[in-house]
Design a protein that fits this description.
Chain lengths: 172, 409
């Protein structure tokens, strides 16, 4: 770990409840409790000059993990200091919820809507938490691991009749 | 048939101002089938006369579940889906994904393959900017510009077809290198393009840069400040037009970009015109990179010889048992990646194109997230279009230069 990054992580550990710090191929992941995410990101933006939140996404660890089941991931970039840091927020599987960071980074508004749409994680205090990519009346959250990937069976001569029956057609 | 759900006014009331609820301002639906939205984008506009009070983008019409589909495919097969994200930058998407896989499994790329990758991504960047300049000018009523820009784009697509057999969905870059070496005609084709293109950019500039009709629509319209741009994670030419010197090719060089001499154009005005100038200048710089990369292109292998991740060449399969086993294993099972996650980003024509890749120790990615630049760049549209005329909104949309396939994924 670089010295500048190490001191940033140390400050984080002193100020906030850091559960774990991981390093892989030069990337540093800091695990922070959900309740402190807003303060931690505000601190990183204002004091450590991480101006840009490059990406925000989530991962579902079902069925191995139930608590925490999800990780919400914020990939931060400092343009002025040329640094990268990944903040991970572990979230429980039962009624998952994280405080919104859309007040800290403007781009989090849409990113959180996407995570809500795809994973069903709600963001408390979000100004406009609606589905963004899926239709508004869609049921389920597609990127969850317990949401099956749908297939359409190809129609060949041997099963032509069978599939034709299931195809939607004009109703009488 | 699914049942239609009713939406009450209260659910969506927070999106518009109080005056809209009282009926003082007008709500106008623009899109999803509108020629100026460059794809299937719907904008809900709240208008006071012709002034935009609120602009609410509605996206998702092109959502194809690419991230979910990639989880069900092996690392090599999932690459095909990345072409379909940003269909103006197919080669660049491949590059971002391949670099992510290479970082995850720690795979080397030969120098010649790096050179070929740089040449093709920079050509693709020019092609993408050509589509932008053509459609942007078309929106602003400069009809002929569209024809000129697509004429030059055709040359680049021909080069892509020459090396990969495909004009758009190339999948030419593979983890560990490129699919195969470029044909002998490649160098002449690129040299020919390098020779004719600078004059063509001069022609475009003669048509557009000082054109008073265009200046009226661009100067001082859609101003994006540096702070807003950073907060909304805007990247690419738009960020650089707002005065932030941030280009991943310079800041975090990959694929040997550090050996090429080029300038990152930066403007401070942050309006439509600054974005226009930055992109036009970028085309010239990209051409410089292509020329240098072609001059420096060494001979040598184009694929890594790490047989655990890259299939052996055809010539070896006939004589080596090991090669045959590797070939068979790689095309049936794929290769295993460690149980870890990485984030790798490249500078696409529209901004930071990042790939978040998490492996679970098996041959399929556990989670792929494509951080597509257009998604965040469109997110800033409601902010910068406030208070402008509807006609200026068209100019702002054009100058943001998003691709809906990139947004909806």
């Amino acid at each position: 770990m670089e010295n500048t990054l190490r001191s940033i992580v140390q400050t984080l550990q002193e100020k906030f409840e850091v559960n774990k710090v991981e390093e892989f191929r030069g990337e540093v992941h800091v695990f922070i409790a959900p309740a402190q995410i807003v303060d931690a990101l505000t601190h990183l933006r204002d004091n450590e000059s991480f101006e840009l939140m490059s990406a925000m996404t989530a991962v579902d660890y079902w069925p191995e993990g139930e608590d925490p089941r999800f990780n919400v991931i914020c990939q931060l970039t400092s343009v002025s200091r040329d640094l990268s840091l990944q903040i991970r927020v572990p979230v429980a599987g039962a009624s998952p919820s994280v405080p919104t960071v859309s007040g800290v980074y403007g781009s989090a508004n849409w990113r959180e809507r996407e995570i809500f749409d795809m994973f069903g994680i709600t963001f408390e205090g979000h100004p406009d938490l609606r589905r963004i990519l899926m239709p508004f009346d869609w049921e389920g959250h597609p990127l969850r691991k317990d949401y099956p990937l749908g297939y359409e069976e190809p129609q060949f001569s041997f099963n032509f009749e069978e599939i034709s029956l299931q195809k939607p057609g004009p109703k009488e | 048939m699914t049942q239609l759900q009713e939406v009450t006014v209260d659910e969506l009331k927070h999106l518009v101002s109080e005056r809209a609820v009282e009926g003082e301002t007008m709500l106008l639906n623009m899109g999803p089938q509108h020629p100026a939205t460059h794809g299937v984008l719907r904008l809900l506009l709240e208008l006071d006369g012709e002034i935009v009070i609120n602009c609410i983008p509605d996206i998702g019409y092109l959502h194809t579940g690419i991230e979910k589909n990639m989880e069900a495919k092996t690392y090599q097969k999932a690459e095909v889906m990345t072409d379909r994200l940003d269909y103006m930058n197919t080669v660049g998407n491949n590059l971002a994904y391949c670099m992510a896989v290479e970082k995850l499994v720690d795979l080397d790329v030969p120098v010649r393959a790096q050179g070929i990758r740089v040449i093709l991504t920079e050509l693709q960047r020019i092609a993408s900017h050509l589509v932008w300049i053509g459609t942007h000018a078309l929106d602003l009523a400069a009809m002929s510009m569209f024809m000129y820009a697509f004429r030059e784009r055709e040359i680049i697509l021909d080069i892509l077809e020459l090396v990969s057999g495909q004009r758009m969905m190339t999948t030419y870059f593979r983890p560990g290198g490129v699919w195969r070496d470029v044909p002998v005609e490649f160098e002449d084709a690129v040299r020919n393009f390098i020779k004719i293109f600078p004059k063509r950019i001069d022609e475009y500039e003669a048509l557009l840069t000082k054109n008073p009709l265009l200046l009226d629509r661009l100067l001082g319209i859609g101003v994006l400040t540096k702070e807003t741009a950073l907060s909304y994670s805007v990247t690419g030419p738009i960020l650089r037009a707002s005065g932030v010197d941030w280009d991943l090719r310079k800041a975090r060089p990959y694929m040997g970009y550090e050996q090429y001499d080029f300038i990152v154009p930066v403007r401070t005005e942050g309006d439509n015109y600054a974005r226009y100038l930055v992109r036009v200048q970028e085309m010239r710089e990209s051409l410089k990179i292509v020329e240098q990369a072609l001059d420096k292109l060494p001979m040598g292998p184009v694929r890594s010889d790490n047989r655990k991740f890259v299939p052996p060449p055809r010539s070896e399969i006939g004589v080596s048992m090991e090669a045959l086993i590797h070939h068979f294993k790689l095309w049936t099972e794929g290769f295993d990646a460690p149980k870890a996650s990485i984030y790798s980003a490249v500078e696409g024509p529209r901004g930071e194109l990042g790939v978040f890749l998490e492996g679970d120790g098996g041959p399929k990615p556990y989670r792929v997230h494509m951080r597509t630049p257009s998604f965040d760049n469109l997110g800033v549209l409601p902010v910068i279009s406030k208070g402008h005329l509807v006609a200026d909104l068209i100019a702002i949309i054009g100058s943001i230069d998003f691709v809906l396939g990139d947004i909806d994924r």
